[in-house]
Amino acid sequence: MADKIWRVYLSGEIHTDWRTEIARGIEAAGLPVVLSAPVTHHAASDDCGVAILGPEADKAWHDRKGALMNSIRTKTLIENADIVVVRFGEEYKQWNAAFDAGMAAALGKNLIVMHRPEHAHALKEVCAASSAVVERPEQVVEILAYVIRGELSGY
């Protein structure tokens, strides 16, 4: 396992820099990890279907075109991931994050869920399907260091 490059998919909330924090931590630790994520430019993600395939008069069809195109990326990256990290943020409901967590669990992927303590009850089923539940990006990096190298800080 020493030569393995780990593939980690970072799903969920797109309005904060948690992905960058994890990437910096992975780089600082020198971990053999390749990160992937959904398209995090909100407007591009929402409008990709109509931008490529043409306009829709009905907003529901507009959204469906975008969702279907985004699903190509999401399914492929989750299927190819060794570990899926799903962050639930503070502001939005993020049904897509819950869907990604369910997909990862159904595929038997290793799942790390990140959320604030006040969301524990609402996410109890999602958390029950995970291998770890964390609150902060640095905890994800610590888990990766432990899983990949057997390194536990302070020991």
TrEMBL record:
<dbReference type="Pfam" id="PF11071">
    <property type="entry name" value="Nuc_deoxyri_tr3"/>
</dbReference>
<dbReference type="InterPro" id="IPR019884">
    <property type="entry name" value="YtoQ_family_protein"/>
</dbReference>
<protein>
    <submittedName>
        <fullName>YtoQ family protein</fullName>
    </submittedName>
</protein>
